[in-house]
Every structure is written in structure tokens, then in C-alpha cells.
Design goal:
mainly alpha, 20 helices, 0% strand, 343 residues, single chain
Length: 343
């Protein structure tokens, strides 16, 4: 009896193993077939686009181009200049942009990513409504990212609040999300300034992206909201970004906020303050930068020394005075910094 049970157990194990192996084999065959079909479809797409570029036309041309949106994206990512402009104009002339807009509308919550990218390459600001409508209905973080990229490419950046709301829906802020918010903030600076000062909840990384985007605008009006954010050490990421943005603005009136940031508790903020001082080149920061040569953080000490060098003669004179002073890490760093300078 016991021997019979053993043999049955062995038979069952062998049977299960054979079934698993068969399923794995079927899966591999299916995956190989899928790859072959994808390769064949991609080849057809390239042939269709090449024929179109050579001037061929036909009743099914637009349908074929629409089906092979990925090939359009690949071509437009390689072609540059006047050739790309001519191709885009021809694609628009055959009605591809309107056909793509209609297909995006039909796809609803699950638009094809390649179709979105192709549409964005062809779209002008007046064509952005289809992308915006798709953004409002699309499901999935990657789809929303691609649609916002498309709106930016088309010269029609979406409303900042809407973009933040949609990208932060899952409570996370990826590096791609932050880069998109940064680009929108640079393009819609008035909204970015208002949001930066708003108590509205948002991921700290998004607030930092707003600050970084504003730093690219060169706007005098951005100094005040950035300065207020730079002292919020409870939001270290955003505060550090605000300090860096003040440096990038390059306006002397940002000096007061940068001076205060040089004494922040956070080494990250102090580091960005030293870098901002390098950009601003204000002699009024020499004393604070000299103190930072004693900073407990090596990166801060190094950036402070580089900021003093960037200040020219006054900064280098201070480095020489410190190098001849009381022995310590400040005098040693000052001496090493001076030795590295060209004669």
C-alpha cells in the first residue's frame, strides 16, 4: 500500500513537471512569435514611410502611416532641420494630424504612447486641444508623461496645477515628473510664482522643480518667492533648489537670501548657497564665504573656496590672508586653492 502511494506520488510529480515544462515552452514560442510579428510590423512601417518620403501616394497611405506611428516617431527623431520640416509639412498635408487626433479621441483612457509621440511631433499650438483632452482622460503615469511632453513640444504647456494634480495622483514624484514640472514652470512663470507661495499641498520634489524652473526665467519678480522658500529648512529639497535658482537668476538683490542660506543648518542648502555666491559674485558675501572654509562639510568648504576665487582680486586677497593665518583646515584649504591657480 505504502509502495503504491509512493509510485503515485512520483507519477504526479513527473506529470506536474512535464506540464510546467510544456507551459514554459508554449510561453517561449508565443514570445518568439510576438517578436517576429513586431519586427515584421516595424519593417512594414519603415517601408511605408520610405515610400511616402520618395513621393509615393495611394488610397491607403494615411491609414498605413497611422498604423505605423512608431516609424514616424523614429524618423522624426533622426531627421533634423529643413528635411524634418518638409516631412512634417507633407504628413500634415495628407491629413495625418487630424486622423491622429480622431484616433486619440477614440482610444479614450488608454491612448497608444507611440501615437501620442507622433502627434506631438506634428502638432502646432492650435492642434494641442487633442493632446489636452487625452491628458484629462488618460490612465497611467507613463501615458500622462508622454502627453505632457507632447504639449511642451507643441508649444502649449498645460496648466501647472493640472499637471501637478495628474502627475502626483499616485502620491509619488519621479525624476521624469519633476523635469516636466520644471519645464512647465519655466514656460508659465506667473503660475509657478503663485504656486510657489501657495500653501497647496504637493510633493516637496515638485516645489523644488517649480523653483528650478523659475531660476531659468531670469525674472526679477521670482526673487521674492524664491527667497521665502529658501529659508524653509523643513522643506530641505525645495529650499536648496530655491537657493540654487537664486544663483541662476544672477540678480544682485538675491544676495541677501544667499547670505542667509550660507548659515543654514542643512549642509545641502549651504552647499547651494556657496554655488549661488559663485554665480552672483558679490563682494558682500566674502566674510560669510570665509567662515564656510571652516564648515564641517568638505563639499561646502570646497565650494566656498571656489566662490572666493570667482570673486576675483578681493576674494583671492582674502584667501591669501587666511592661508597666512592661524593653522587649521581653513588656512590649509586656502593655501591649496591658491596653489592651484594659474600663475
Amino acid at each position: 500500500m505504502a509502495l503504491d502511494l509512493v509510485w503515485r506520488s512520483i507519477d504526479l510529480t513527473v506529470g506536474l513537471s512535464a506540464m510546467i515544462m510544456a507551459l514554459l515552452l508554449i510561453g517561449r514560442v508565443a514570445e518568439a512569435r510576438k517578436q517576429r510579428l513586431q519586427a515584421r510590423d516595424a519593417a512594414r512601417g519603415q517601408q511605408t514611410l520610405q515610400a511616402f518620403m520618395l513621393g509615393e501616394a495611394g488610397p491607403t497611405l494615411r491609414v498605413d502611416l497611422l498604423r505605423h506611428a512608431e516609424s514616424v516617431v523614429q524618423a522624426l527623431s533622426v531627421i533634423r532641420g529643413l528635411e524634418a520640416d518638409r516631412l512634417i509639412e507633407r504628413l500634415r498635408q495628407v491629413g495625418l494630424i487630424s486622423a491622429m487626433a480622431e484616433k486619440l479621441r477614440r482610444q479614450g483612457q488608454h491612448p497608444d504612447v507611440h501615437l501620442i509621440e507622433a502627434y506631438a511631433h506634428l502638432a502646432r499650438p492650435e492642434d494641442a486641444q487633442a493632446l489636452l483632452q487625452s491628458l484629462l482622460t488618460a490612465k497611467g503615469a507613463r501615458r500622462r508623461q508622454v502627453i505632457i511632453e507632447g504639449l511642451l513640444r507643441a508649444g502649449a504647456p498645460p496648466d501647472l496645477r493640472l499637471a501637478i494634480e495628474l502627475l502626483a495622483e499616485d502620491g509619488k514624484a519621479s525624476s521624469v515628473d519633476c523635469a516636466l514640472i520644471e519645464s512647465i514652470a519655466a514656460a508659465r512663470a506667473d503660475e509657478a510664482e503663485a504656486l510657489l507661495q501657495s500653501p497647496e499641498p504637493m510633493p516637496n520634489e515638485f516645489r523644488a522643480a517649480l523653483a528650478t524652473g523659475l531660476g531659468q526665467t531670469g525674472r526679477f519678480s521670482a526673487i521674492a518667492p524664491l527667497a521665502r522658500l529658501s529659508v524653509r529648512e523643513d522643506q530641505e529639497t525645495a529650499a536648496a533648489a530655491a537657493v540654487a535658482a537664486l544663483g541662476e537668476l544672477g540678480h544682485p538683490l538675491a544676495g541677501g537670501a544667499v547670505l542667509q542660506a550660507l548659515y543654514a543648518h542643512s549642509p545641502r542648502i549651504r552647499l547651494n548657497a556657496c554655488r549661488a555666491a559663485t554665480e552672483l559674485r558679490l563682494t558682500g558675501l566674502i566674510d560669510a564665504l570665509s567662515e564656510r572654509l571652516e564648515d564641517p562639510d568638505w563639499d561646502v568648504r570646497f565650494e566656498a573656496s571656489q566662490a572666493l576665487v570667482a570673486l576675483g582680486s578681493p576674494g583671492r586677497a582674502r584667501l591669501r590672508r587666511i592661508s597666512d593665518g592661524r593653522p587649521g583646515r581653513a588656512s590649509q584649504l586656502a593655501r591649496e586653492t591658491l596653489l592651484e591657480l594659474p600663475a
